[in-house]
Amino acid sequence: MNTPPGSTSDAAFIQLLSKHQRHLHSFIRSLVPSDTDADDVMQDTSLALWENRGSYDSTRDYFPWACGVAHVYVLRHRRKTASDRLWFNDEVLELLASQMLEDSELFELRREALNACLDKLSEEDRRIVRIRYQEGITLGEMTQIVESSARSIQRTMVRVRRVLQRCITATLREWRVS
């Protein structure tokens, strides 16, 4: 089945929903009083996203669109449960939603910058970062894998963190984001 420009196939939409589910749940959780409320709103939001998948324009970012839908369901949930719970007023809720969305966009940009900066590292530095952070190997275990002293690995990690921090800052500045 061919999809028109700007639309998304069902499989691609499911991938987007799955990819952003945890982040979307965090967004919802920041706006509701409990984990149970967040789970309820997430369930309603997921169903609404699926039912409205035809209105999603794939030329635009998925996460802000999904957050907009989630925000509507947070407000509905709030109205439904307002009498038995303490809720923020609408103005505070709007401010929180807006701030969370801005923070998530900046987080995504930082993650993209980190990936770009990791690609610029030497093969050995990338290997050390991968072993430590992606595989979760302890410093003690790394000494055997890398065949280097703990002190040497620590110095390398400090240097690599500084290089990455400078690179991320420069990349974001280049992209005109601070």
Fold blueprint:
Blueprint: H1 10-29, H2 35-51, H3 62-81, H4 90-120, H5 123-134, H6 139-146, H7 150-174
Brief write-up:
This protein has 178 residues and is mainly alpha-helical. Helices cover 75% and strands 0% of the residues. The chain is elongated and about 60 Å long.
The CATH architecture classification of the largest domain is Orthogonal Bundle
Round the Cα radius of gyration to an integer and report it.
21 Å
- Report the principal-axis shape: elongated
Q: Let me know the CATH homologous superfamily of the largest domain.
A: RNA polymerase sigma factor, region 2, helix turn helix motif
By CATH reckoning, the class of the largest domain would read: Mainly Alpha
Q: What is the number of E strands?
A: 0
Structural class: mainly alpha
As a percent range, the share of strand residues is under 5%
Helix content: over 70%
SSE run: HHHHHHH
- Uncertain runs: none
CATH topology name of the largest domain, in short, is Rna Polymerase Sigma Factor, Chain: A
How would you describe this protein?
This protein has 178 residues and is mainly α. It has two domains: 1-87, RNA polymerase sigma factor, region 2, helix turn helix motif (Rna Polymerase Sigma Factor, Chain: A, Orthogonal Bundle), CATH 1.10.1740.10; 108-178, Winged helix-like DNA-binding domain superfamily/Winged helix DNA-binding domain (Arc Repressor Mutant, subunit A), CATH 1.10.10.10. The chain contains seven helices and no strands. The longest helix has 31 residues, at 90-120. The model has no long low-confidence stretch (mean pLDDT 84).
